[in-house]
Amino acid sequence: MSAFLGHIHYWLYKKIQLLVERENLILEKTRRVVDDLADELHEISIDTYGAPIDAATPLEDIIDHNNIHGWLSGQINVASVREAAFIKDMLDTNSGDDAVLVVAAILDAFAVQGKACGTVAKESLEDVNAPSIYNALQNFYVNGMPCDGGDQIVEDSTHTFTWVGDHRLQAPYWRTAGIDPQFMQLAYQTWFEAFVKEIAPEFELLTTDDGAQRLYTIQRVQV
User: Which of 33, 177, 190, 221 has its CA 20 to 30 A from that of 67?
Assistant: First the structure.
């Protein structure tokens, strides 16, 4: 059965596994702030959108071999919406000092995973430049299916790589979950910043917004 699975399917599955792992990391960190409430809200998101896959399960043992593309696309949708819904409930349910600590815990989860992925990515990074860092980043975070098309590139040079930060492939999941897209943009920005800093300290991720367009830029640090 596994003969029908190619590199791209395992590539996507790994990113789905990372998405599930980040959801669990958010649960772990918010649990330290609000105890059982985090588990209760997480169970609600599971009841509503479906249980996470077991990230330790081999792809060939879990995928629908008669609908490979549909299964992968469905898992991206379920995991993305469930994570966003869980985060929304955590933000909506807490107030005061707890709210501040919950926000910090969620963003810390994104930062921790971004750094961990950067650590893995730099082991195989041969040419350290802005485009190669961007390409490495694409191996770790869910950015739709290959057939969905990629980001809109604005600048592509050795020292600077810029793309439109509209999160067009993530935004539909956020709308389904009903979460404030600005918070999710901040969370992803936190992930990107930690990834870039870890994979190549001589580069940084910059975010600019002129009111009409939001941009992400991977840029060599000026010395």
Answer: 177
